[in-house]
Description:
Oligomer: single chain
Largest sheet: 4 strands, mixed
Amino acid sequence: MKKYGYVILAALIFGAAGRDDIARATMYQCVDASGSVRYTDMRESRNCTPVIFNDRTTFFGQGTAYTGSNLLLDRLAAKYDRYIRYYGVRYNIDPHLIRAIIRCESAFNPKAVSKKGAQGLMQLMPATARELQVADPFDPEANIDGGTRYLRSLLNTFRQDLRLALAAYNAGPTIVRKEQTVPRIPETIEYVKRVLTYYRQYKDGRS
């Protein structure tokens, strides 16, 4: 489930009708100390520069994490909405929560791979995917099915405590079960915070 350096091989091509909206959705390209590139809608440091969008804006690169503006993410998310809604109902999980996790995990990139090997939209580790019998973690429907089932099992394990379930999704259930709280791992603390923020935004109709 770790969210590090995604491989992005996606072309985002927009029609002329959407150009004004894209222009208003300012986005930045940020380069960290290791040289990895991150696209975000917030200027996080001096190493971030604005990206100029047009109808043929394309992102390529290895070790790239794309988090994008709301407009761009909405267009990507719409492709998987039917799966999110179906498996949300099937496993009794709010589709807005599933959507928030996918946004945080992979920014709706079905081919995302983390440095630790987590794969696909909901960033399933290979061992977890095998346990969930997800044959192809890069298949969007199979990944959402497996990831949502895994989340349901974590919610059951931690008595429907959403914060603990999210922490376990990121850091693994063993350490969360041991500490019975969100572990003091900066990445996990930030992960839980971000997912809950996105979840509230989706529930409020503000993607």
